[in-house]
Amino acid sequence: MMKICAAIGSADEIEKHILADLAEIRLDVFKKIPNNLSVPRLITFKDTPDYNILPNGFNEMIDVGESEFPITDATVLSSYHDMVHTPNATKIADIMNGMKGDITKGAFTVNQFTDLTNIYKASKMLGKKHVLIGMGELGMITRVRSDILKNEFTFAHTGTPTAIGQLSIEEMRKLGDDCTITGIVGHPLSHSLSQKLHNQAFKDTDVNGIYLKFDVLSLDDIENVIRYFNIRGLNITIPYKTDIIRHLDKIDKTAEAIGAVNTITNLNGCLTGTNTDVAGINAAFKHASIKLNASKKILIIGSGGSAKACTYTFRKKDANVFIVGRNINTVTELCRRFDCTPVTNIDPTEYDIIVNCTPMGMYAEAVYPLDISEITSDQAVFDLVYNVNTPLKILAKERGCKVIDGMDMLIGQGLKSFNTWTKKTPNFNNIKKAIL
User: Fold this and answer.
1) Per the CB 3.0–4.6 Å rule, which of 168, 302, 388, 430 could disulfide with 307?
2) Phi/psi of residue 327, each to 5°?
3) 419 class by beta-carbon count within 10 Å (0-12 exposed, 13-18 middle, 19+ buried)
4) Host domain of residue 12
5) What is the pTM of this model?
6) Residues 380/352, Cβ–Cβ less than 8 Å
7) Residues 119, 12 share a domain
8) What is the CA 294 to chain-centroid distance, rounded?
9) Identified catalytic residue from 16, 241, 308, 393
10) How far apart are CA 290 and CA 426, in angstroms?
11) Residue 283 domain-assigned?
């Protein structure tokens, strides 16, 4: 059973320690050591320890950092922090096995999946009681899966996080050791609403789970991390929907036809890739009351993973699809795969529906590969950028175009992924209301 140490961030939060098994009293937060706590105390010294501050006969726990092992009746925690990176597994083990504390603590900054692999492997190489933690948002999974790392305890905040990646003590107590972990992988993820969507879905369906963000610059070791930390499933977004395929055991027929994966499911260590973007696209058009058929002439901007899913979906409905993009090679391949037409000289008024499958308009002023000022009220616009009022969406609304909501696609694909992982389907409208 998960043992939790309350990392108390201020004196005002001390009453929440009753939810924990252990209470950390940091001497950079507290001017004196509080008494009469209902659980044992971990006194964490800052810089050079002054053991004279300890109450007479103190026999609970002290964190002395990298200082020498003191003569004391307390349980001594020796700790090492790397605020920059995570070394390889052997180095981690050497550091922690070389410390003299009754318990050794190692906290390492996680920047990539490989770091999580090294933390996992190091945990199997430790010869004494330990607490091994990955710091930062990417390291959050090490806190939730503390049991897998065989940690003596894990930390949770009481209201004010004392480290990036800490969850609240209420969250940690609810999750326990056997919660369902899902998440999203991509870069960048700063604008993503998927975490909010899925955590609301967990709440609405009474599934004990959490959805984490993995903002990474490389997919190296992702398959090992999924298996080592028992991640149930992951969503994959820009720019990894194609690159992820080589890390999987298999992909289903839809993902194979599209050539892109946006959802991974881990079933007993077998990693299967699927593409729920199709479900999201169909949901968005359904909610906009627009039918896709052979009479529709559609222009797609982009040739990445989302463009592949849109092209596949539209061609399944026999729509006529035209594609424009910066990478002529991927545009040509996409058109060849789905019998579409590449275009360069574009008259936007020729198309019934204009679809933006790029991040254009998300971060800076967009330069579209067509003159969007020419769009008219009898056209529809579908911009997959769902949480930014892009120039394309602004103009489409001003012109009275039918605007297909990218948010509806996000929710549709997200709920399909959620159902794949949990066999539960939250209410679409309730989720949309919660995340707007």
Assistant:
1) 302
2) -95, 100
3) middle
4) 4-178
5) 0.93
6) yes
7) yes
8) 38
9) 241
10) 24
11) no
